[in-house]
Design a protein that fits this description.
This protein has 606 residues and is an alpha+beta fold. It is built from 15 helices and 18 strands.
Length: 606
């Protein structure tokens, strides 16, 4: 080649360099093709594993619901394998490097993150819980030989706590997945994952609180005593109803037995509140909240009611109870679906069909003496609880009854132990005031009887709520509308017993119903105005534990109704949140309806 002319040698060198460059380019292209193929094939495989994992979740839910715990454990193991495979396929160096490719990289990153979250949940939540679910089912709460076996609950505490922590982290990780530039199928998958985690998050949190609370509250660490308030919805209190009868529950290592039983009217009046009341409680409900056992539930804050009831019981008996529980006749009706009919000492048969009518209406015709009526209520509660404590009930229906009652605000629980009360706080049984976050704004509609009678058996209530951004500053306007109606017979003044109508003792004509309606907004809301039947109306305004409150008063004759509307201005950070209403549980459950209003006049002023 040295004999070749210089120009020829230069051309040869250029050709060699070109071929080298060409081979390098071809090699790079081949590597890119291989990488794409690698990522593509692994992506398809990962997709298959994730789809299998989703199918396993559905299967697992069916198996757990049906009580097939052996199959559920196998399905949980298969779910873990599928989720682990999907994570492995999307976590290798080539996949991670491909995440930096414009456009497609964002999708690959999201798929990897989905697989990671699913794998975390399968390992940290599903598998631990599946390992104990065989021993922890609804039957775990059914007493055997008079007591609940607390060991399965104790064994479940650590796995369920781990599952809860895993779900908490999974919710955060799923929310952090960037879907701003992802393809529609990937975006849809992320949204499905977020929705599924949001749905299960609350359920797992509730289960964890129950598992952590139940053993200690059932006497695993020593004897416990609780005060049971039997609330009467025929005479409404914001927290449910007047505590007509109270009873002591003695708890020891899973066994529950009735102790001392007394009439609610036997507590008070005391010369002053048994405990100091804050300004909001006194302004809205008066000092009587802490002077009569029958008035401790005038406030919707059950932690306040519980402390007052505890103090009154201690004052009369010298006993310091560990907590307070409240139930109503509707709850007993739900429980009777699980226990079946029970025979009362009076000869009456109490069933799920007749419990409410017998306890809240017919009893007053049968027993004219208020002390006999209270004794009748107490005997009914005692009979149901004795059947429950003996294990004579359907466990699944029992849990369903408690769940329904708690969801409707009919079952309340307060613990004198601060750490236990912290676990209760925020649950359906806590009796807490409305809250607000980016997802939901809650309002409260609480009713107190002002008649001094049992006429609320005939009070019908409907509630509507709506929200809209009506201002340029983005602050949301919300309106709550309450309609109440007196459905008592036209001749109620003469056809109903004087004890039911009140007989005019407290200034309300027989047959009429006087009601105080307190509408609560979330903290930091601003009261805008109120109306009654489309016309502006004056109301009492106050603040209760940071919540703005508007309280109205009405008197209705048989057949009459009234509609109140109250409007509040909220905070911009909650502008897109949905609305809910917490409401005093009456004889019938209140349905919350959507409300639309004119931004120019959210509260009619005509």
């Amino acid at each position: 080649m040295s004999d070749l002319p210089e120009s020829r040698r230069t051309a040869v060198r250029r050709g060699n360099r070109a071929r080298i460059v060409l081979w390098i380019v071809l090699a790079v292209v081949l590597l890119v093709i291989l990488a794409v193929a690698w990522v593509g094939v692994r992506g398809v495989l990962a997709k298959g594993h994730l789809e299998n994992a989703v199918a396993d979740v559905q299967t697992l839910r069916t198996q757990l619901t049906g009580g097939d715990t052996a199959s559920a454990e196998k399905t949980a193991a298969h779910l873990e394998d599928e989720a682990g495979a999907a994570r492995s396929l999307t976590g290798d160096p080539i996949w991670r490097a491909s995440e930096h490719v414009p456009f497609f990289g964002t999708n690959l990153r999201a798929v990897r993150q989905i697989a990671g979250v699913v794998d975390d949940v399968s390992q940290g939540a599903v598998s631990p819980v599946a390992s104990v679910v065989g021993k922890l089912g609804t039957d775990s709460f059914a007493p055997k030989n008079g007591k609940v076996d607390l060991q399965p609950l104790l064994q479940a505490q650590a796995p369920v706590a781990r599952a809860t922590a895993t779900i908490d982290k999974a919710v955060t990780d799923a929310d952090a997945i960037d879907t701003a530039n992802t393809l529609s199928p990937v975006t849809s998958a992320v949204n499905q994952l977020r929705n599924a985690l949001t749905s299960v998050h609350g359920q797992v949190d509730t289960a964890n609180r129950v598992v952590q609370l139940a053993p200690a509250m059932l006497g695993a660490d020593g004897d416990r005593q609780y005060l049971l308030l039997f609330q009467n919805n025929a005479e409404l209190r914001a927290g449910g109803g007047i505590p007509g009868a109270v009873a002591l529950l003695n708890v020891n290592d899973g066994s529950v037995a009735f102790g001392d039983q007394r009439s609610g009217s036997s507590f008070g009046p005391y010369p002053q509140s048994v405990l100091p009341l804050d300004d909001g409680t006194k302004a809205l409900y008066g000092d009587i909240t802490g002077q009569y056992m029958q008035d401790v539930t005038l406030t919707p804050r059950f932690d306040v009611s519980g402390k007052l009831a505890q103090a009154m019981w201690r004052r009369e008996t010298g006993q310091q109870v560990n907590g307070v529980i409240a139930i109503d006749p509707v709850t007993l009706g739900y429980l009777l679906k699980a226990t079946g009919p029970v025979q009362l000492a009076t000869g009456d048969t109490l069933t799920s069909d007749n419990a409410v009518k017998l306890l809240l209406s017919e009893a007053y015709a049968k027993y004219s003496d208020p002390k006999m009526q209270d004794a009748f209520f107490a005997s009914a509660a005692s009979a149901v609880f004795e059947k429950v404590s003996s294990g004579g009930f359907n466990a699944k229906q029992f849990v369903a009854a408690l769940t329904q009652s708690a969801g409707e605000g009919r079952l309340r629980l307060w613990s004198a132990d601060a750490s236990e009360e912290q676990l209760i706080d925020g649950t359906a049984v806590s009796g807490a005031l409305p809250t607000a976050d980016e997802e939901t704004r809650q309002f409260g509609v609480y009713l107190n009887d002002g008649t001094g009678s049992k006429m609320d058996y005939y009070l019908q209530k409907t509630v509507s709520v709506g929200s809209s951004v009506c201002r340029k500053d983005g602050l949301p306007t919300s309106a709550v509308e309450v309609t109440i109606k007196n459905t008592a017979p036209a001749d109620a003044a003469t056809s109903l017993p004087a004890y039911v109508t009140g007989g005019g003792t407290y200034g309300t004509k027989p047959g009429e119903i006087k009601t105080l309606i307190a509408v609560y907004a979330p903290t930091n809301a601003i009261f805008l105005g109120a109306s009654q039947d489309g016309k502006a109306v004056g109301v009492q305004t106050a603040t209760d534990d940071g919540h703005p409150v508007a309280q109205l008063r009405t008197v209705l004759a048989p057949g009459e109704s009234a509609t109140f509307r109250v409007a509040f201005l909220g905070q911009a950070k909650n502008a897109k949140a949905g609305t809910e209403v917490l409401s005093t549980p009456g004889v019938e459950q209140t349905e919350t309806l959507p409300l639309r209003f004119d931004c120019a006049a959210p509260v009619p002023q005509g």
